[in-house]
Design goal:
This protein has helices spanning about 35-65, 70-90, 95, 105-135, 155-185, 185-200, 210-225, 230-250; strands at about 5-10, 15. It is mainly alpha-helical. Helix 1 (about 35-65) runs antiparallel to helix 2 (about 70-90) and helix 4 (about 105-135) packs across helix 8 (about 230-250).
Length: about 250
């Protein structure tokens, strides 16, 4: 009897002929691959909706509290956001562990990632500056001003705007959300949908012009190299360039 015509009982380990609904030895229902795939996809979508819904509701609620500001408040928001992702990451730690391994990380790829991120950040800053001057005439594209009342505004800005998002947004979007979408709809759907979900969560319509391409690039790196480290490095470099630029040019 060929392997393709048989499957093993989950309870007793005996072979079950394909097409038979129950194990003749213990009576356990035979594995149903189509049903198991459907259940797995449904569970993935449920996890995805809970995670993204939690993040979206949290961000919208924070944006509504416009009267609350300051460094302490901003750090608390960062911590709560990180805890939401950490909770789901803990439940899916076995799937995330390979993505956080340093195995096969290339120094050359890290250097290329840094260089491309810095160049792209410069292009976005030029474009956003042009938008501010020609269309909006005012406004800011970063939040480093929230830390002006601290002893080390640049340090705290980098921690909040560059370090925290690079770690937890990558784990959340290129790790958890990408994985759940990949299970439910395949790698291409996972790449596209996770990129738009990442951009939308920032709740800035104009920023979609660069956040969607950033999401696609970060998702492609995760998909191509099966690691989150290149995305974390790129995310950090891009955000830290924005912080440094705003500090150097705001006067």
């Amino acid at each position: 009897m060929s392997h393709n015509q048989e499957q093993l009982c989950k309870t007793c380990g005996r072979q079950i002929r394909q097409g038979v609904r129950f194990c003749s030895h213990c009576g356990t229902a035979a594995p149903n691959e189509e049903h198991e795939e459907y259940v797995a996809g449904t569970n993935s979508l449920r996890t995805l909706l809970w995670l993204y819904g939690s993040l979206l509701v949290f961000i919208v609620f924070i944006r509504l509290l416009k009267f609350v500001s300051g460094a302490g408040w901003n750090f608390m928001v960062d911590i709560l956001f990180s805890l939401i992702i950490f909770r789901f990451a803990l439940r899916n730690r076995n799937e995330l562990r390979p993505l956080l391994s340093f195995k096969n990380i290339s120094v050359l790829k890290v250097l290329i990632t840094i260089g491309v991120s810095v160049i792209f950040a410069g292009l976005v800053l030029l474009f956003s500056g042009w938008l501010k001057q020609t269309i909006f005439h005012s406004g800011v594209f970063s939040e480093e001003y929230l830390f002006d009342d601290t002893a080390y505004p640049l340090l705290f800005s980098i921690l909040s705007i560059a370090v925290q998002p690079a770690i937890f947004e990558e784990i959340g979007f290129r790790g958890l959300i990408y994985d759940q979408l990949n299970k439910a709809g395949g790698p291409q759907a996972a790449l596209l949908v996770s990129s738009f979900m990442f951009a939308i969560l920032h709740l800035s319509i104009i920023s979609l012009l660069w956040l969607v391409p950033i999401g696609l690039a970060l998702g492609w790196m995760r998909q191509r190299y099966n690691t989150l480290w290149y995305g974390m490095i790129a995310h950090f470099c891009y955000n830290v360039c924005v912080v440094l630029y705003n500090f150097l040019t705001r006067g």
